[in-house]
Specification:
45% of the residues lie in helices and 11% in strands. It has 421 residues and is α+β, with helices and mostly antiparallel strands. The chain has one domain: Orthogonal Bundle (Cytochrome p450).
């Protein structure tokens, strides 16, 4: 067994960090302008009318929940905050009942997404090579073959759950290959994702137990890669250096966790929302069947209109920002989905126009943290839809009432029964 001192004393999960806690208050929202919560079922089912109303009535909404949080809904405000790393920190990007301690910045628990400048650029640069267009093109044949395998398994069924039986598996398999994890571990990844992203309403002790599961899995993979180094991102991270020194164990496992989590829920959601739209809009479905070359343009529109990812920031110091009296450690719920539907930025912002020509959407974020996996996400989305349209062709919602959307910061269908014959 190879020994690497960095990992020798690393427990699956250390002491719970001293951070800032607040009670999370769930329950019906009295007024979205003064009491918003992205955890309520109404928001999960259809957040767009709420965001449209806020943009008109109160463009930077507030809530006392989560210990205090703000929700900007105009594109210009979302962009200004995303670009302003001086005043808004990324030390936690998942809004909940726990804020990590301030001294965790500028590295954070999962670099580079949790890192602020100046460290951020170094952590990001390390990962760029694995996610270039050329590197991602190498994953395309295996992704396509896997999509066909998934469709083969649907043989004989009239109704299939396109979220659980198709969309979910694609990003899990691709990222497992890239990180060098066993492909059959996919189902465990779904639990990790749920633990981290959808479990934010749990008491901190329960969240720590859930994190433990993920980190002990990652440590097993680290050990396997130390014993059997190979050509994948995990072995690369184990050998990588910043400022002439190997990465700390926390940096390696934090980045592995980020890559595992960031790519799954997000892409699963984007594939699911696109299929949901096409099942519900026969004219768009038929147009894509007749004009497959339009698909990349349509995908950008699905990403704009159903942007799956909302991020969070923490206010660094007390300040008045565009009229909002922000306090240090207040959350900002940074809604790229709301920005993408701002009529001041997009013509007919509330409509889905699958041949929209000018489409500078913010689904992949804005500024220094802009999605590092965007080439991968676009490839997976295109291949998943190409194979589905080629093999299934006609499909409709089997039961619109049975479609279930995720709650929290990543939005997409988690149950999507489609009639395929
Ligand atoms: C449709 C799918 C996806 C969407 C909509 C999406 C969206 C985003 C957004 C909005 C951000 C900005 C975060 C912020 O401002 O705090 C981000 C960052 C990031 N994404 Fe994605 N993402 C997707 C898929 C992926 C995939 C497949 C990967 C790779 C495994 C990935 C890896 C990352 C990483 C590493 C960052 C952090 C970059 C940094 O902080 O410099 N994402 N993503």
């Amino acid at each position: 067994m190879t020994v690497d001192d960095r990992f020798a004393s690393l427990e699956p999960i250390g002491e719970e960090p001293e951070g800032i806690r607040s009670e999370i208050i769930t329950g019906p929202v009295s007024d979205w302008a003064t009491d918003f919560s992205h955890l309520e079922p109404e928001w999960a089912a259809d957040p767009y009318p709420i965001q449209d109303d806020l943009r008109q009535r109160c463009p930077i909404a507030h809530t006392d929940r989560f210990g205090g949080a703000w929700l900007p809904t105009r594109y210009e405000d979302v962009a200004a905050i995303a670009y302003d790393t001086e005043r808004f920190s990324s030390r936690s990007i998942n809004m909940g009942n726990f804020r990590p301690p301030r001294d965790i910045a500028p590295i954070g628990g999962s670099p580079p997404i949790s890192s602020d400048p100046p460290f951020h650029q170094h952590a990001r640069k390390l990962l760029l090579g694995a996610f270039t267009k050329t590197s991602i093109a190498r994953q395309e044949p295996a992704t396509r073959a896997f999509c066909h395998e998934l469709i083969d398994k649907l043989e004989g069924q009239d109704v299939v759950d396109a979220a659980a039986e198709y969309a979910q598996h694609i990003p899990m398999r691709v990222i497992a290959d890239m990180l060098g994890f066993p492909p059959e571990d996919g189902p465990q990844f779904a639990e990790f994702v749920e633990d981290l992203l959808e479990g934010i309403n749990l008491p901190p002790e329960d969240r720590i137990t859930r994190m433990e599961r993920l980190f002990s899995y990652l440590l097993t993979q680290v050990q396997d890669h130390l014993d059997n180094p190979r050509d994948d991102i995990t072995s690369y991270l184990l050998g990588a250096e910043i400022f002439g020194t190997k990465l700390t164990a926390d940096h390696v496992t934090g980045a592995m966790a980020l890559l595992l989590i960031a790519g799954i829920d997000t892409t699963w959601s984007a594939i699911g929302s696109s299929l949901w739209h096409l099942a519900d809009h026969p004219a768009d479905r038929r147009r894509l069947l007749d004009e497959p070359a339009l698909l990349p343009v349509a995908i950008e529109e699905f990403l704009r209109a159903y942007a799956p990812v909302t991020m969070a920031r923490l206010v660094k110091e007390d300040m008045n920002w565009h009229g909002a009296d922000m306090k240090a450690d207040d959350w900002i719920l940074l809604s790229f989905p709301a920005a993408n539907r701002d009529p001041a930025q997009f013509d007919r912002a509330g409509e889905v126009i699958i041949d929209r020509q000018v489409n500078r959407h913010a689904a992949f974020g804005l500024g220094i943290h802009r999605c590092l996996g965007s080439h991968l996400a676009r490839m997976e989305l295109r291949v998943a839809l190409e194979v589905w349209l080629e093999r299934i062709g006609e499909f409709t919602l089997a039961d619109p009432e049975a479609v279930r959307w995720s709650t929290g910061q990543i939005r997409g269908p988690r149950a999507l029964p489609l009639k395929i014959s």
